[in-house]
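Weekly sync notes, structure subgroup
Attendees: PM, AL, DS (notes)

Item 1: joint prediction request from the bench team. They want all two components modeled as one assembly rather than separately. Inputs as received:
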Amino acid sequence: MSPNVLALLPEIILTLTGVFIMMAEPCLAPNSSRKPLGWIAIAGTVGALVASWYQVSLGVTIHAFSNTIQVDAFSVLFHYVIGAVVLVTLLGSLDYFEGNASHAGEYFALLCFGAVGMMLMASSVELLMVFVGLEISSISTYILCGFRKGQATGSESSIKYFLLGSFATAFFLYGVALAFGATGSTDLYAVALGLQTTATPALAFTALALILIGLGFKVSAAPFHVWTPDVYQGAPAPVVGLMSTAPKAAAFAVLLRITFTGFPIYQHRWTVLMWVLAALSMTIGNLGALLQRDVKRMLAYSSIAHAGYLLVAFTAFPFDGIAAACFYTATYAAMNVGAFAVITQISGYDERARTIDDFTGLGQKRPYLAALLSFFLLSLIGIPFTGGFFGKFYVFSAAIHNGNVWLAVIGLLNSGVACFYYLRLLAAVYTKPGAESARLNQLRPISIPAAVGLALAAAATLTLGILPSGAVSFAEYASHSTLIEQGRQECAAHPDCHIQLQFDVR
Amino acid sequence: MSAQVPVAAYLILAAVLFSIGVAAFLIKRNLITIFMSIELMLNAVNLTFVAFAHMWHQVSGQIFVFFVMVVAAAEAAVGLAIIIAIFRTRETLNVDSIDLMKS
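Output from the run, pasted for the record:
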């Protein structure tokens, strides 16, 4: 197989699936069920996951399209996270649109296209490809946010996400343009090399700062988080589950590559920026969540706080930092997409349960769903034996190894504050409902695909918490593979360097 | 004989355009105008790319501009569709009246 095809195999499978769904959708009768299209999308996502597994099983770093695409264990780890999130979202939303929207086929196709963009972001080492991937994923999610066209909150969420997302993209692009100006290239390895000899270090640092602003918007790190609560509140629940995890994972993959691979010689400077962003995101996210009554809005602030915990990993040494960030991304994706999958099942297409009070008495009426929701919320708090605990432990210990004790202290204090609002929702779930509370009475029984999706998310969260060794060694392998490739590229640029790294067989 | 315009002049012009775009994004209250200010920012970026491509004698900067233009066109298609959806549900394009979700 040509390396170009091999490197983009998961993306190619998902693109073909999406195109096929788009073409099949108008051929179906207007009132017929769109479920078969959903199953095709699920098959395509599983195919993409298998293709990613095949890529990593080769044990080599694949370079393609004149070295703009680099598929290593790092990319594959993020492919797994993105693919798994899309899979759980698809399983959970098979019945979500039943009887409401005859254009559900577009929803399945857009999920596939969005996944293509995110996977492309995770495997590109050239800022042009990063930009293209970023836009493919963003444009798909802009549309998905406003998918319930008739609802005013849906289109409001969509326009807010669109305007602020494009605004952020412009900042990102201006940063890329200045980086090109300072180093004469947009290839990350060439940028890293060019920075050593650049005549305009101030320009290069401005470029990095602008890129950080752009990506800060995408990962909703404070102070670039203002769009998050409104957008999450208005968008459909399964879409929020997706967009609070998968595009963020992809943006963090890009952020890791740009900081550690593209701008390593400025690490002492961007570590300070990351320190401030992390401290602000954790504090503003957790304090903001305390004030919310709407569940999706509360989880939006919680996702800002979790972006902050993830940014803590950037203040660690490169090897620890990349591994910890990879691990935390996976655990955060598992528990957050799980929590939103439960909320999708409870509130349904017309959002019956919105505020915390609407969840009162869930434990009595739907004991299994309530148990799953509690498990995901406990994991988001970081209770031991859940993925959330081990992820936080890994990130904070990595930061402490590099001497950032105070940041870890801020993080731990924030975890304490976070307990309060998650437990408030849990308390409502296990309170006896009042006589007038009838909102949860019209719940439909949960379908088998949705149950499978929930089970997948719960199993992943549990496994990452009690048996983390496999995932940790994969995260360390991912971290190694990027750093070894970085060393190899640096060596290749110097004529008197002859180290042979037996890692890459083109 | 024609005097050559220095690269710095283009860069300063681009920076000014970008700043005007940012300011308009923050100040203007009409959705279409806000959307136009984003396009202005993207075109400032394009100008920067072309100026640097000329300075480094590299085509890659100009290729980037083509990608930016294509993506901006795709974004405009989606953005205008969302703006139409907004107008249909509320009959206004003023951002201050799009505030259903203030807590």
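Discussion: Residues 7-92 of chain B form a domain with the Helix Hairpins fold (CATH 1.10.287.3510).
Action: AL to compare against the crosslinking data before next sync.
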